[in-house]
Amino acid sequence: MELLVRKQLVLYSGSSHPELAEDVSKLLDVNLGDVDIHRFLNGEIYVRFLESVRGSDVFVIQTHVTPVNEHIMETLVMLDALKRASAARITIVLPFYPYSRMDQKTLAREPISAKLMADLLHTAGADRVISTDLHAGQIQAFFNFPFDHLTTRPLLVDYLAKEIGGDMMLVSPDAGRAKLVDKFANALGAPLAILHKRRDPNRHNVSETLDVVGDVQGRRCVLVDDIIETAGTLCDAARVLAEHGAAEVYAVATHAVLSGPAVDRLRNSVIKKVVVTNSLPIAPEKRFEKLDVVSIAPVIADAIRAVFEDESVSSIFGGDNA
């Protein structure tokens, strides 16, 4: 007897960012699957998928917003449930990879938590991971199974070209981001400047911008980074650019964590416009007049479609998504 088996794409959302998952499902023309996720009174997480996933190609969209550790545990429980339900392949889509800034040791007796996350996802049952704009590209090497790295750069470049226009100078907030910002500069045909920054390794989220490498006098400067958390670095960098004669200062980043004083700092800074993506949900109280949000749903939908159809993900970005 010969059986013809058809692959079935099944899409689920965790509880962290259902709006993004809904947008992706519409672009794929696939309904989100039914899943029961709730908390017991003591905080433990219960997950049950309300339909059979046996033999299915399952994709779970779950980003990691505050409370981060609770959403990580929810992700792991979802993966375990799918594995025990005999899904053929389980792909976890992480628009924001948790603990990505802890990808190496900088002081003695520190963890490498980004590697720990990779181990946890694999043990829980993930067969593949899709993530967006990693803080450090080497995180991909922590996985012994397929990892697809997406970039929001085409979306953000398109926004900058349409909304800001010519006479731009792309600015890296530190030397470590220079390679990323250079790709923006090349795509826009704009010059590049780099800020010199000093960070205290013993104090998290604290740095000092010291000087500018490049002539920003009279230019429309666009600061480019991957994460905005407390916005201290970004606002300090914008101030230094203004002091060096920049005509206008804009800021672009993928992941809007916006912790603590971030919103007040950005609102009161010299930055004219802050452009981020919806890789993380942005609560109404964290939205402000200067903030523009670009949806990454098209990029994620294209990647899911490519993985399901066993096609190249890198071709979506012309091979420039490493």
Low-confidence stretches: none
The number of strands is 14
Q: Which descriptor suits the 3D outline?
A: globular
Beta-strand proportion: 25-35%
Averaged pLDDT: 93
Largest sheet: 7 strands, mixed
Number of helices: 8
Structural class comes to alpha/beta
What is the string of SSEs from the N terminus onward? EHEEEHEHEEHEHEEEHEHEEH
Distance between the ends: 44 Å
Strand order of the largest sheet: 10-9-8-11-12-13-14
Please bin the fraction of helical residues. Answer: 25-40%
Rounded to an integer in angstroms, the radius of gyration calculated over CA atoms is: 21 Å
Defining traits:
globular, alpha/beta, 322 residues, 14 strands, 25% strand, five-stranded parallel β-sheet, single chain, seven-stranded mixed β-sheet, 8 helices
